[in-house]
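thread: overnight batch results

M.L. [08:02]
morning all. the overnight job finished for the chain we discussed friday. pasting input first so we're all looking at the same thing
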Amino acid sequence: MIRIETERMTLREMNLQDEKRLMEIFSDPIAMQYYTSTKTKEEAQKWINWNIKNYENYGVGLWICELKETGTFVGQCGIVPQMVDGKNEMEIGYLFVRNYWHRGLATEAALAVRDFGWKKLQLSRLISMIYERNIPSIKVAERIGMSLDKETLIKDRPTLIYSIEV
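M.L. [08:03]
and the structure it wrote out:
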């Protein structure tokens, strides 16, 4: 079982008991403004199951981010396999509870995940797929050393592909 430590957080694998935590993000229309819609509890369960399958099949997935001091759920961050323009890529994804925005937590988690991908998984390239209007996510990608690789359509939405290579 993967566990990643940062200065302020512990990142751990999701489990079925995390549905309520994830709904703090998924039911918030502001937190989900750059996604196609908010998610239902059923969709949150599917999300968790997708991540569990990713852990089993690829050794990666999105991980639950909790503050070390209190155990408070603050978001999710990890590496997930994605198909981009017919090519398999490994994406760093992040999504945080709105009450914890603007504290550097997404950048802190994404840096740890980037380093995990390089050092533990020996990945030479990582991407982030970002909806073109999602300026906060673009800033996180840039803070961890990513730069704009290309623009493409993902599910008929204009999407920026940021990347970094070792």
